[in-house]
Amino acid sequence: MKEIYCVKTINEVHQMLGLGAPKHPLITIIRKWSEIDFDFENIKLTSELYLISMKGKIEGTAFQYGKNSYDFADGTLVFLAPKQVASFADPIEELDDSGWTIMFHPDLIRRSELGKEIKNYSFFNYETNEALHLSEVEKQSLSELVKKIDLELNQNIDKYSQDIIIQNLESILKYSYRYYDRQFYTRTNQNKDLVSKFERYLHSYFSSSDLSEKGIPSVKQCGEAMHMSGSYLSDLLKIETGRSAKDHISSHLIEVAKTTLLNSNSSISEIAFNLGFDYPQHFSQLFKKKVGMNPTKYRKSN
Q1: How confident is the model at residue 113 (pLDDT cuts 50, 70, 90)?
Q2: Which of 161, 186, 211 is the endpoint of a domain?
Q3: Which pTM value belongs to this model?
Q4: DSSP-derived secondary structure for 209-231
Q5: What spatial distance separates the first Cα and last Cα of the chain, rounded to whole Å?
């Protein structure tokens, strides 16, 4: 079993990389990774930090996250949130310093608007094989924002520094969302096939004994069935259909519920339990929200 090595602070990152004391206790920018004296085959890394990393020219692979391995390519952008676990099959050797990595502690943004909104940047929960592939123009745009943060870190910290750093971090994340939208759209034919595949998966699941035996499928479970993260699946569906994965799941559930209500004498409670609900009132609330009337009224009116 691999040992898990947890990095808790920016200072620990600098110590691990032999970089000396950080310019700021809560954020750092790394231009080129130095060699790390770890047995990569037997170590998994996790941290209490956010990471945004754009890699330049690299040799070696070797990034493993979740069940997928990922080969870094020039100009790909990867996001990791605190507590996520990653491992390296072998050390990465950077051939130049054209890439960059920003690591920051949640305390940096905790009192800011970004601290409240960062949970909405769903790409922090994507798998690494769902990384963002940047064009040259996009790389340049983000690199300019990184330079602005770097400038703040390399001059005397004053009362404006933190706000300016956070503003530029937020801009990086907003641009990344824009670029992810572009990536979704440029893969639209592939995505339409995935939407169809997802609909077939739901139809099969809700038509089988899985529903009563395993309960309502979660977004994460659906993502795993589609060989992607739940967050990526949901964002893909929003782009292609205007509806989230959770909404698609609920719609299938309600269709099954309608058919059962009109073709059986089972009580509302029995139907709710058979549909995977622990509490019948939760089923009734969802049904009324989606259909406009409660299950009993729907049954009587049809």
Answers
A1: very high
A2: 186
A3: 0.69
A4: THHHHH-SPPHHHHHHHTTS-HH
A5: 58
